[in-house]
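Example noted here:
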Amino acid sequence: MEPTGEVVELLQQLIRNRCVNDGTPDSGDESRSVDTLSSYLGSGGFELEVHEARPGRSSLVARIEGSDRSAPTLMLMGHTDVVPVSLDGWSRDPFGGELVDGEVWGRGAVDMLNLTASMAVAFRRLASSGFRPRGGLVYLAVADEEALGTYGAEWLTESRSDAVAADYVITESGGIPIPTPAGPRLPVVVGEKGTFWCRLTVRGTPGHASQPLRTDNALIKAAEVVRRVSAYRPQARIHDAWRRFVEGLGLPPELSAPLVDPGRVTELCETLPALGLARQAHACTHTTFAPTVVHGGTKTNVIPDRVELELDIRTLPGQSAEEVRAMIQEALGDLSGEVTVDPLSHDPSTESPIETPLWDALQRVAAAFHPGAQTIPFLTAGATDARFFRRLGVPSYGFGLFSTRMSFDQFSAMFHGDDERVDVESLRLSTEMWQALAQDFLS
């Protein structure tokens, strides 16, 4: 029996659970989806454990033990939390989980409840079939991915390492077919940029707002700080993961050459008609700076003496915190002496090798669903929980399998965006691919 109805129903329930993670310790309440998944998986002759880093912040681990202790263990990891929404931008209820014209709508439909659901369905179907592999199969539904994993993957790898032990990990989110002259290409996330989140504090002198002439207004200075950060243009850098991705696409030389040329890629990104590719190319070849949060002022008639700005900075492989601080100072110029920089989080970039048996298995299995397709390595600009396992020396990839109904541009735009949705054919493909991969890699 094909799994479409089963995975659609489970995804709808996960969306309706509203596990919204706003970054505060008590948000998320992923225990709702852990309850859903526990009930769905039931007791099918496999181990099922719940681990709670903080009240309400639960993660679920299910494990089918392998028959050969020397054989590798594969983990399928999906997160259960989602980012907040702005209701004004949505055409439908973001937590309704509606099925409309062959698509499931809702927050998390692509990031990444679709894969979390399809992994669970594949795991249960394998267990119900009596699947007893040589290597072990682990399913992890993890909390707090959308806020750097403090109460999820980070806590589990540090405090419950035995429960999440694996030799290979797959999580979000590749497998979106990219048409090329040489045939479809399926990106596999082998690494990710680092994060350097920080707070800039801009100070001024308070005074009466009815007399603004020659005042030291922190808000005005902060506006100039934002302008300078936005205008800052770091030099492009071409690293191996990006070069291999471009080479794998088989693009004509007039496009591929500037994509791997640090002197030309920035200009190309400004003019590429495909906005999704332009943003990806820019993010994968530059350190990026995005002002995202501002707090300041106390009252309408008081000149503000303090404004706080938060920056989301994403770093390239090999970049240190010291290098990022130097870039901030360069961007601020003569204002740097009036701005205090306080790091909020620093997570260096991580990357996994592609010379692994799992990579080969992904290629074999994916080609069976998309004939003629080839997997190609890809570096994602966003952070995933894979980084915690990579730092333990565990090769970790981001993958799934999607239909051709949505383009790479459309799919990319829905991460943390409006009107997030996924087609049911992609849900079927992902579910059947997980089953085929487990049978290929672990048997």
